[in-house]
Every structure is written in C-alpha cells, then in structure tokens.
Amino acid sequence: MTAAPIVVAPPTPENYLTVDYGVRSWLLTKDHKRIGLLYLMSITGAFFLGGFFALMLRLELLTPEGDLLRAETYNKFFTMHGIVMVFFFLIPSIPAVLGNFLLPLMIGARDVAFPRLNLASWYIYMLGAAFLSYTMVSGGVDTGWTFYTPFSTIYSTTNVLSAALGIFIVGFSSILTGLNFIVTIHKMRAPGLTWFRLPLFVWSLYATSIIQVLATPVLAITITLVALERTLRIGIFDPALGGDPVLFQHMFWFYSHPAVYIMILPGMGVVSELITTFAHKRTFGYTYIALSSVAIAVLGFLVWGHHLFVAGESMYASMVFSLLSYLVAVPSGVKVFNWTATLHKGSVEFRTPMVYALGFIGLFTMGGLTGLFLAALGLDIHVHDTYFVVAHFHYIMVGGMVMAYLGGIHYWWPKISGRMYPENWGRVSAVIIFLGFNLTFFPQFVLGYLGMPRRYWSYPDEFQVLNVLSTAGASILGAGYLLPMSYLLWSLRYGAPAPANPWGATGLEWQVPSPPSAGQQKLAAELGMWIFLATEVMFFGGMILGYTMYRYLYPVAFAHGSQRLSVVIGGINTGVLLLSSFTVALSVHAARTGARRLLLAALGVTIVLGVVFLGFKAHEWRHHYHEGLVPGIHFTYAGPDAAGVGMFFWLYFALTGVHALHLTIGIGVMAVIATLAWRGRFTPAYHNPVEIAGLYWHFVDVVWIFLLPLLYLVGRHAP
User: Omega of the bond prior to 414 within 30 degrees of 0, cis?
Assistant: First the structure.
C-alpha cells in the first residue's frame, strides 16, 4: 500500500493588492497603483452624486411648471451638479485614476517622481470634497458653477464661501498631480524610451499636466478675490465701488476654457491606445497625434474670450477670439482623421473598450462641430446661454470624456483587478449609454436653437415634448451607467482570472518594466521646484493683470494712491531682499563645498534679512492703517477719486500681502534647512534641499523686483 502523493499548490504571486492588508496600509500607501484606486473610489462617488443632481433636474423639467423642486432648490441642484461634475469628476478622473495607475508602468518607472506628494494630492482632493459636502448639507449654493459676479459676491445668500474654498483646495490637488506627471515623464523614463516612443496616452497626460500647472493658479487667485469681495467688499468686481465684473469673466475663463482640455485631452490619449490595440495596426500619424496634444494645450490658453462675445467685449477682440476658436479645432481634427486612418483596413475587433472608443469618436465629433457654430459671432450671440450650449458642452464632456474614461477602465480593468468582466454585458452597456446619451442631449440642440434658455426652472409649453424626450434619455443613460459599476464589482469576486495580456496589446504596461536608476531623484526634485515656480508665476500674474487693467481704467486715482507709498521704504526693502539673494547664493556655495560654518552663517543672515523686510512692511501697513487707507470699514480717504484710490490700495494690500506670505513661508523653509545643516545633514555629495530652497527664495525676491516699480514708481504723476 503506497501513500497518495501530496500536491502542494504553488504560492499565489504577491501583487500590489495583496502585498499588505488593512485600512492603514491603504491610507498611508505611496504605491501609485493604490493611490489610483483611492482616486477611483472617490471619483466614482462624485460621479454618481453629480448624476443624482442631474437626474433630479431632468425630472423637474418633465413639465413646464415646477412640480418636484422649488425654484431655489432647482438653482442649488444645477449649481452642485456643475461643481461636482466639473471640479471633482471630469477634471481629475482620467489623470488621477488611470494616469496614476499607468504612467509609471508605461514608461518603465518604479513609481511617480514624488510618491509622498502623490498621496498628499489625494488627501487634498478629499479635503476639498469635505468642504463641498459641508456646503451641500448646510443649504447648498445657487450661483451656478461659474460663480459669476456680482451675484456670487453680493446678492446670493447661500454658502458661496465654503463651496469656493472646496474648489480652491481641490485645485491644489490638480496642480500637484500635474507637477508630478511632468517630472515623472521628463526624468523617470526607462533607458531608450525617447519622446517619440512614448505611448500617446503619456503624451496626452503631459499636455494636460502643462495646463494643470499653468492655468489652475489663475483659478486660485480668482476664487480668492471672490471670497475677499464677498467678505470684505473690496470692490474689485463691484461696479458700485469702481470695479468691473467683466474682469472676473476674463480671469475665470482664462482658466476654465483650458480646463476643458484638461478634461478631454486624457480621453483622447485613451482612445488613441484603444484604437491601436483593437484595430491591430500601428497608429497612423503617430507624430502628428502626439504634437497635436501639445498644440491643443497651447492654443487652449488663447480662446477664453469667445465666452465674452455678449459681455461687452470689443468687436475687434471678438473677431480675434473667433478666429482662434476655429484654429484650436485644427489639432482636434488631426486626431480624428488619424484615428479614422488607423481604422482603415485594420483588423478591427469590437471588444467592449473599442465600442466605447467608437462612441467617443462619434459623440466628440458632434460636439466639436457644434463648437465651431459657437465660434461664429453671429450664431453664438443667438444661442448664448441657451440649451444649445448645454448640449454642446455635454457632447464634449460626457459623450467624449466619460465614454473614453469608461473605455479606459474596461481596457485596463484586467491589469487593475486581475479579473475579466462579462464581455457581452460590457458591449450592451456601451450601446445603452450611447443611445441614452443621444436621446438626452440631441433634443437640447433643438431647444437651444428655438431659444429656450438654460438654468430655468420653468419654460413655455411648446418646449415640453423635447424636454420629455430629454428626460427619458436621461433615465436610460442613468441605467446604462449603473451597469458597468454592477458587473465590474461582480467581476472582482466571480470574474475569470485575467491573462497577462488579454488584448494582445503592445504597450509597456503589459510587459516587465525597466525602472530608472535612483540617481534620477535629485534632478527630479530640481525640475519639480521649477515647475512649482511656474505655477507661482501664473498666480502672481493673475493679480498683476488685474492691477494693470484697473491702472488703465483709473490712471489719476492710481497716481494719487502711488504717491502715498514711501519710495524710501520700498527702496530699503529692495536692498534687503537683494542682499538676502546674495546670502542664499552663498549658502548654496557653502553647501556644495562642505563649508558647514559658512552655510549656517549665510542661512542665519538670510533669515534675519527676511524678518527685517517683514518688519519694514508691517511698519508701512501700520502707517497706512492710521492714515485711513486700509479699504473696508477703516477706509476714510475723502480726497479726489476715492473709489479708484480704494481700488489701488486693495490691490496694493493683496499683492504685498501675498508676497509677504510667500516670504514668511521662505523664512520657515530656511529655518528648517538651517536646523538640518546644524545636524550635519548636508555634504558636498548631498545638498539638494539647499539648492531647492534657494530657488524658491530667489523667486520671491524676483517678484518684489516687479512689485517695486509697479506699485511705487510707475505712474506716480497723473497724466
């Protein structure tokens, strides 16, 4: 009698899902894949919350008169729908979820350049979501997601501040993600992976990150000014106090139109990957598709003015912006034509991701063509603020970006979860979403052309049939979105184990990665600081733009205001900061050469000089306070052009106050660097933190070099 052989099952391979267990391991993770999943769960919640608001709006519009919601509630619902969908779903979705998960895998890196910063960006996103949640449970906000002044600053009695703060905070999450991706793509690529060998999805993330880094700071300063206007009545957007609400529109749309490309460019990158894989053919015109992403990012900054065709913009400016709006369509057309050429004579396989990709092409093309209608001055004036604009926007964002997002989730789901989903259900859901979407939004083109304005609680009876069709489509669309969530969750437990490469794709993320050397980290940190300083340039640039505009409008008043500033104190402070730049440079030299005593002395002098600058600035502010030049309840100036002088001092305090805040942060950073130097942490081989802190200090000094002539010297004499 022989014993039966004992079969020992091979151990289950360890992966990022099983390497550690427990909530703490997820909340403190620095693994880009886990952080991508944290974003996936958060953003999915935002998507369904925004969808709930949308469904309630459509149910309300079944009948011409309000039956379900009061007018005030309707206003709050469409505002919350816009805020949640734009800032908490559309903008972060593909970069934060698929970008975080896939970017290092696609370029052969171990992780993103700054893993801790990556985790911090998710926590910042959740903090912004917490403020928005507070807004919802405490009564909501009714200004529309655009926060147009003066309604948002004077007339609205809802929770504008908490909503604005939530958007302000989540903007920093977007900046950190973009900064991380740019540095990762530049410095963490595998050996031999040159720029024109990068996947097109990586190109789209790179172009998107440029917009995130450069445009989002303008939103931050715009939201800050709205908050100051609402709480302190600074008057910068209030015509009664000498302000101009159109300035808000310029600043808001300077961010928000490029933000459209933050939403759609990653979707274009996803579709490029899907078409190449399922057409079983090399991408036609790879170079042109890659460069068109960068072209869209650049041109996106030049077309904000087409939102102001009916806001008093000059005819010449409108003509220029109309032309630029047509021009930005060219690189988008390049992508569509090259996708079509890739499909031509390809062995097309209609798997679920491919069905979503084809749906994207059709719906995005429709949205793009109607965008050309809005670029035409005559037609835009007719359909401005109607449902035509709503339909166009949703064809681009929902029909385009969301279809691409779902296509990407289905394509990389085997890589994310290690499981396959039911293919038939995937194709059915894609078709249902496509049909439901068109039934929802195509009637709105007709409604808008016939003149039905958007954001209205009630409407004339003749529009009811089209609104009923739109609501019926929204119900189908909602059911279509629930299907993928259901079967993807089902697949986590019951789905078949996924093979290593179920689609036969050629991307590096499906292969064994080649991580870069650890030596790249130093260069990554320096590049990260330079990119951060670029965001700071845009932040100060937004305020300087506002100052320049109002100086042009009120030259005499600004001359009176400038005459009340002390050129002597301004000059002394300039000398102090220039000397501090010298001591910072000396500290960097000392760190490189290992001169520890010189390093400590230079850092100490730098800190003292920074404190001296703040002391002189505090003395100057105190003097203006006693002269009654602090705008608000303490502003007692009764001379000529009082409103304009008040505007000058609001901008003066805003610019110098933000600069002083940056200098205070710099002093804190230098104190930390000095502490580390005292402990002997820096050597000639490792002194990178000193150089990075020095870059920040020099930037703060350069900003003051611009503020001195702008505030103290230029225009002191009235024309």
Answer: no
Q: Report the Cα 350 to chain-centroid distance in Å.
A: 33
Cβ neighbors of 618 (< 8 A, separation 6 or more) are none
Distance CA 705, CA 640 (A): 30
Residue 600 Cα distances to 322, 591, 595, angstroms: 57, 9, 9
Q: Tell me phi and psi for residue 686, to 5 degrees.
A: -140, 100
CA-based end-to-end distance of the chain = 113
- Nearest Cα to Cα of residue 33 among 113, 96, 100, 90: 100
- Number of other residues whose CB lies within 10 A of the CB of residue 506: 12
Q: What angle do CA 694, 706, 215 make, to 5 degrees?
A: 75
pLDDT of residue 190: 84
Amino acid symbol at 484: P
pLDDT of residue 14: 66
What band does 4 get if pLDDT is binned at 50, 70 and 90? low
b/e for 168-206, b at 16 or more Cβ within 10 A?
bbbbbbbbbbbbbbbbbbbbbbeeebeeeebbbbbbbbb
DSSP 305: G
Question: What is the C-alpha separation between 4 and 104, in angstroms, rounded?
Answer: 48
Q: Which domains does the chain have, with CATH numbers?
A: 31-505 (1.20.210.10), 554-713 (1.20.120.80)
Report pLDDT for 60.
94
Which pair of structure tokens corresponds to residue 137? Answer: 């449970």
Distance separating alpha carbons of residues 306 and 322, to the nearest angstrom: 6
Burial of 535 (0-12, 13-18, 19+ CB in 10 A): buried
Q: What single string gives the DSSP state of each residue in 255-275?
A: HHHHHHHHHHHHHHHHHHHHH
pLDDT at 682 over 60: yes
Query: What is the structure's pLDDT at 8?
Result: 47
| pLDDT on residue 716 | 63
Q: What is the pLDDT of residues 98-135, one digit of tens each?
A: 999 999 989 988 889 899 999 999 999 999 999 999 99
Q: Tell me the backbone φ, ψ of residue 536, rounded to 5 degrees.
A: -70, -35
3-state class (DSSP) for residue 379 = helix
- Which residue do the tokens 């598709």 mark? 289
* pTM of the full structure: 0.88
On whether the CB atoms of residues 209 and 181 are closer than 8 A, the answer is yes
Token couple for 454: 């958007």
| DSSP code per residue over 414-458 | HHHHSB---HHHHHHHHHHHHHHHHHHHHHHHHHHHHTPBTT-S-
Find the angle CA(338)-CA(341)-CA(342) to the nearest 5 degrees. 90
Q: Residue 281: what residue type?
A: K
Handedness of CA 530, 532, 535, 539 (dihedral sign): negative
CA atoms within 13 A on the CB side of 605: 17
Per-position b or e across 28-37, b if 16+ CB within 10 A of its CB? ebebbbbbbb
Cβ–Cβ < 8 Å for 307, 252: no
Where would I find the H helices in 7-31? 23-27
Cross-strand partners of 686: 683
* 514 vs 381 pLDDT, higher one: 381
DSSP three-state, residue 10:
coil
Local structure of 683: helix, strand or coil: strand
What is the spatial distance between Cα 264 and Cα 391, in angstroms, rounded to a whole number?
16
pLDDT tens digit sequence for 428-479: 999 999 999 999 999 999 999 999 999 898 999 999 999 999 999 999 999 9
